[in-house]
Write a structure and sequence with these properties.
Length: 267
Amino acid sequence: MKKILLELVLTVAVIVAVWFGLSQVDWMKLFNIRQNTQNTEEKIGDLFWKMLKNSETEITSDSIVAPIDSMLTRICKANSIDRKKIKLHLLRKDEINAFASPGNHLVVYSGLITACENEAELYGVIGHELAHMEKNHVMNKLLKEVGLSVLISMSSGNGNSEAIKSAIQKISSSVYDRKLETEADLTAVDYLEKTGINPEPFASFLYRLADVTKNLPTQIYWISSHPESKERAEKIIERIKGKDFPKTEVEDSLTFDRLKEKMKEGL
């Protein structure tokens, strides 16, 4: 019996020693997994954007890009997000849509800008997509739905065009699960608060477009691909209940109105 107990103690000791030793190893560094994953994501993101750019009309007019870039920069600065890593792209497309793509590409459609009644609504959507980036929701979604081997194949230049188009479609118009959407919404609320912007218009945007989608389901991807919009809006309102926020400056409203007019004029 003593011999059995001694062997058991020795076995446990060996297991503990091995576990402790392994726990001290920086496996991420040892296998360079983190760097490889980042490189893969950047290559995929660049590939996605190249295909989008070749198939859609990019907006490059500084009079339109600059105001949106300024909004993005303001959120990043207030929330200690590295603005330099975010690649902003505007596309002339009627769909009310915006999405985060691998490699920190942020794509915004002109239809979204013209659908927003004020800049606070657009701030909310931008904050939501930034949250997907910062929480690593984008790549996690692709890994789950497309698979690591396919993504690696794409990044190495061996992916076929149909597989790439399918992956882009999943990112641009497919829904994240409810938990991730809620996390992105509430993180966006935090971003807006720190930026000094009232998140209530963001909730109003969700309320309003949730009703509009009943008539225009094919033109409002951002809402049709994000279900339970009213429920999400209610969570935002609950989150900010009792808090005071600055009112939108008239000058800011006028600037945004002029931006929307330029969008409609096709500049």
